[in-house]
Write a structure and sequence with these properties.
It is a single chain. By secondary structure, the chain is of the alpha+beta class. 33% of the residues lie in helices and 24% in strands. It is built from 15 helices and 21 strands. 49% of the residues are buried.
Length: 455
């Protein structure tokens, strides 16, 4: 153990980002993950049918730190991600809309003006409403002095009911995984500022072609290993101890060694989920962590459900993904559908249907939910064969995110304990619980730890 020996607990996207930054700076990094698969709440899942993701994600061109670290760890963006211009397109004849930014490289905000001019399914009043929102938000600098719900913000900006249904509600669910009536308007505006309100490429939608573990976490682990670090999966940290205020002792258990062992580090990045972090911090006998633990356990979890439907290899949608009109009262639960065959050649005929803030729908039997989603697709696309998949798989991540509510207080990366920092999408930042938020937190935690260990 040296003063440049650090542990990163948790190999989700935040932990992997911190590990890469520290390894790049010359630290000897030990990356510890309790699960067998890297990626945390955005990872590959090995099922009895196929290798799937525990949730379908869309990245944005504004995700600068995620894209930077992918490039640093050797990920080819063109091969790993399908880039599409900003769009919200519904299946034809469903009462939705067709809104898509042009593929031509028009400068911002002309690309949005062109998309609005060409949009179908919106009335003149709807278009004026959207233009008014964009103009007013820009004038405000995309900032609110007093936070409120997204629903309140949309009412204040005189948004039409149809535009709320077809544009703002789906965007809010996709970005914050929180219904508009409970979601933070301030955080929502931050996302819009860095996408709709920024350069044209910032609003691009990036669809993963690779599984989520391969998209960054596994490349990050390889990056750490090449630089002399160690990556251990199936290694659960049971306890953390402060040794004379200078070192950190970790008690680790794992099936590979058949017991528990202890090891020492000069610094620790605690990159687990908020509740797991609170449990570890609470049990540090040498420190008073009650206030921080109380803050960490105050987050309200939100679920995301992905319904995978496998058809014959010839089944294909006209576009890589569509928005769907969800109506849970009529058993239409799907909000977006992705044609995985257009993203990954090894998955022809596989459709992934996403249900954000899915706690209510996920409570019903999986067979009934999958059947309802399949029927929804068959009706929306007017293709009866979509109602008869060969097999299905329903994956619900019950703690996929936290509810991003108005005025939510999130802890800083600084734990208040020398040499121990926090990393996770729940830490203080502009974004909600997204991949980019996790990566930015990991980068910030690594920078903070570098400063503390250099003193």
């Amino acid at each position: 153990m040296t003063y440049r020996s650090v542990a990163v607990i948790g190999a989700g996207w935040a932990g992997c980002a911190a590990a890469v930054e520290l390894a790049q700076a010359g630290y000897k990094v030990t990356l510890l993950e309790a699960a067998r698969t890297l990626g945390g709440r955005a990872r590959r899942v090995e099922t009895d049918r196929a290798h799937l993701d525990n949730g379908q994600h869309i990245l944005l061109g504004a995700y600068s730190e995620s894209l930077r670290l992918m490039k640093l760890t050797g990920i080819d963006r063109e091969q790993a991600l399908l880039t599409l211009p900003l769009q919200m397109r519904y299946p034809p004849n469903t009462g939705g809309m067709d809104f898509a930014a042009p593929s031509l490289p028009l400068p911002a905000p002309l690309h949005l003006a062109a998309a609005l001019f060409r949009a179908q399914g919106l009335t003149r009043e709807d278009k004026l409403s959207l233009a008014r929102f964009s103009t007013t938000a820009r004038w405000m600098g995309w900032q609110l002095h007093q936070d409120c719900s997204v629903s309140d913000l949309l009412q204040r900006f005189d948004q039409t009911p149809r535009l709320i249904q077809l544009m703002w509600r789906p965007l809010c669910l996709a970005a914050l995984n929180t219904p508009p009536e409970r979601a933070s308007a301030r955080v929502f505006l931050n996302v819009l500022r860095d996408s709709l309100g920024a350069k044209r490429r910032a609003s691009d939608m990036l669809l993963p072609r690779a599984d989520l573990s391969a998209l960054f976490p596994e490349a990050a682990a390889a990056h750490v290993a090449v630089r002399g670090g160690t990556v251990r999966s199936g290694a659960k940290v049971q306890a953390i101890h402060s040794i004379e205020g200078r070192l950190w002792q970790l008690d680790i258990s794992g099936s590979a060694v058949g017991g528990t062992w202890s090891t020492y580090f000069s610094g620790v990045v605690l990159a687990t989920g908020a509740s797991q972090a609170a449990a570890l911090l609470h049990d540090i006998p040498e420190r008073d962590t009650a206030a921080l633990c109380s803050q960490l356990t105050a987050f309200e979890p939100e679920a995301i459900t992905t319904v995978y439907l496998q058809y014959t290899a010839s089944v294909r949608l006209d576009l890589p993904f569509y928005a769907l009109l969800d109506d849970p009262y009529n058993h239409h639960y799907g909000q977006f559908v992705f044609d995985r065959g257009q993203l990954d050649a090894s998955q022809p005929g596989l459709l992934a249907v996403v249900i954000s803030a899915s706690a209510q729908s996920a409570d019903q039997p999986q067979e009934l939910l999958a059947e309802a989603v399949a029927v929804q697709l068959a009706v929306d696309f007017q293709r009866p064969e979509l109602g008869r998949p060969e097999w299905f798989k329903v994956i619900t991540e019950k703690r996929a995110t936290y509810a991003s509510t108005p005025g939510l207080q999130r802890p800083s990366n600084d734990s208040g304990l020398p040499g121990l920092v926090l990393a996770g999408d729940y830490t203080a930042g502009d974004y909600p619980a997204t991949l980019e938020s996790a990566v930015r937190s990991g980068v910030a935690a690594a920078a903070l730890l570098k400063r503390s260990t250099a003193q």
